[in-house]
Design the sequence.
């Protein structure tokens, strides 16, 4: 156990090594730091794999204007438990587990009790770049690292049979798309549109298809048309082709919009059938400041709705993991060593990934 003799819970004593960014505009590079000691409810994990979410890229590049440097990204984590606090009952050393976007919350407020820890009234502790009330007032560091610590409530047990590298992106891309598909009842008879075929988008296609929905993919990438069909799409539309977009007007009940850049959301609202809903998942650069333009008539003439959805709570994440295990759904991944992380970021921004990069953390020691 990498604990210091006599150290108190919360003291920064656990040695960690990962990849961090020190300043906007720089590259991610090796970084040594310390994590808090294992408290009674904590679980310490040796990270095996970590997915690269576009949110990691937005955050590293300070595109949301709230990055605290230095930062270690990574919230699609699979690892092995190496130590547990004395009150931990559900997990033991050796268990294979997943950790997603959160590592703590108050556990007592209405939102936590309702299983929506992401909206904890005291503020959920996010996996990285979040104030860590348990860690001496510092901030959290993510999973591009050899180890990770989290409150046991946020550590999910995985089946040891799984393809572990491919399971990692379920911890964000999986739950973020599963949650709105369930909430808006994707299923037989429902026409679901997925905008953007990236990490989130390709999971949304697999999940919506498995739920029995009719799936249309809207992509800007010609080179993804064949894949979209293989992943489960019944129809694929090149979204920058006005004529094709026109031909699908009023034909979709639920749109899951995963685009990572500012785009014409109004054009997608016009594709909704009466009473249809578009759910925004993407948080492009400057999206905290810059609004999308939506014509009131686009919503009024058809009783259409615009909504958003933020990851998913822990109960629902477990439900999603069970669902994916039952239906044998895992993301399509490209496994990379950590030394290629900066290149992978650039490729992801160019939409050049099929469909999620996952870092093999054993490469850290190379
Ligand atoms: P990703 O893998 O990079 O996929 C984004 C896709 O958007 C691209 O593959 C591309 O699809 C499309 N796209 C990119 N630039 C575009 C442009 N200029 N115009 C039109 N389409 C464009 O990203 P991701 O990891 O899936 O994340 C997507 C977004 O969701 C990010 O903003 C991320 O921060 C956010 N996110 C939100 C939550 C949440 O809880 N709401 C959780 C995780 C991530 P095509 O090539 O098919 O056009
Ligand atoms: Zn994410
Ligand atoms: Zn709470």
Sequence:
């Amino acid at each position: 156990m990498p604990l210091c003799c006599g150290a108190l819970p919360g003291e920064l004593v656990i040695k960690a090594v990962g990849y961090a960014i020190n300043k906007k505009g720089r590259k991610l590079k090796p970084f040594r730091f310390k994590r808090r000691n294992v408290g009674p409810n904590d679980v310490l994990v040796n990270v095996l794999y970590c997915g690269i979410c576009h949110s990691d890229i937005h955050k590293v590049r300070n595109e949301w204007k709230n990055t605290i440097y230095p930062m270690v990204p990574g919230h699609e984590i699979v690892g092995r438990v190496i130590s547990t606090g004395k009150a931990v009952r559900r997990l033991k050393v050796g268990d294979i587990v997943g950790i997603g976007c959160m590592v703590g919350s108050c556990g007592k407020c209405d939102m936590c009790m309702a299983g929506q820890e992401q909206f904890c009234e005291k503020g959920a502790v996010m996996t990285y770049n979040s104030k860590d009330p348990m860690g001496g007032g510092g901030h959290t560091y993510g999973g591009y690292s050899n180890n990770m610590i989290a409150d046991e409530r946020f550590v999910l047990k995985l089946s040891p049979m799984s393809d572990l590298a491919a399971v990692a992106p379920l911890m964000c891309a999986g739950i973020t798309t599963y949650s709105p598909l369930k909430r808006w009842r994707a299923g037989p008879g429902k026409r679901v549109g997925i905008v953007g075929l990236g990490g989130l988008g390709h999971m949304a296609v697999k999940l919506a298809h498995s739920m029995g929905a009719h799936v249309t993919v809207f992509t800007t990438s010609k080179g993804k048309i064949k894949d979209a069909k293989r992943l489960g799409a019944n129809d694929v539309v090149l979204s920058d082709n006005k004529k094709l977009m026109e031909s699908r007007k009023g034909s979709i009940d639920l749109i899951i919009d995963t685009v990572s850049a500012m785009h014409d959301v109004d054009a997608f609202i016009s594709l909704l059938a009466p009473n249809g809903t578009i759910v925004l998942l993407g948080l492009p650069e400057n999206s905290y400041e810059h609004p999308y333009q939506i014509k009131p008539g686009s919503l009024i003439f058809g009783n259409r709705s615009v909504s958003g959805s933020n990851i998913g709570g822990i109960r629902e994440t477990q439900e999603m993991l069970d669902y994916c295990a039952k239906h044998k759904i895992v993301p399509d991944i490209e496994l990379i060593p950590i030394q290629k992380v900066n290149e992978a970021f650039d490729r992801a921004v160019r939409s050049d990934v099929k469909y999620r990069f996952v870092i093999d953390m054993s490469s850290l020691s190379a």
Remarks:
- The longest strand covers residues 42-51.
- Residues 4 and 13 are 6 Å apart (CA to CA).
- The mean pLDDT is 95.
